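Exercise 7.
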Amino acid sequence: MPSIQLLIREEVIRNQFPAPMGTEAFPAYAIASAKELLQEVKCAARSTLKYPMTFGTLGKGLRSFEGRALRDLADFRKRCKENMVTCLDSYLDVQPSGPSSVWVGCPEVMPPTSSLEIRQRSRALPIWLNECLSRCRNDLTSEQLARPLVLDSKIWAKYKTAYRTHSNCEFCRQVEGKKGFGYIVGLERNLMQAIEKVLHF
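Solution. The predicted structure, written as tokens, is:
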């Protein structure tokens, strides 16, 4: 078995054995799981996150699943979702050294007084950003197996739409101009890392 696994990996490296495309990731996962190709199981499992895990998506590939493989894949998706929710929670919980601290100071959520001491204690996200991140979090927590488990491409669009509702705020406009792009790119990267940290077993 180790020699067969080595041969398959060498073929993948030389592009002689193409990686699965689209929903082919599901039967590829099932086969890799059955043959105990752990690296390939991990790769295929991540590829399936872009697609719903339904009978329609699995199609004839469902026959390839043996033992606990289908259950393991469902558990993997669940752990990915939990890690992504935790990541979003860290952005919603405004800490002095946290990623969302750059947004502290929006007049809409700051107390009328501008004393430094009160400002330091009032660590709140602008309402538009809080609602945007909360919606993304709620979308994730309500995700079922029948929906893809992807957020990265949606977050940028949701962020831009939410920001436009508040673009008359001078404070938020300055933060958005200087740090907005890096903030969202960082969030997307951290969400991807949250998935990368999930071990299949």
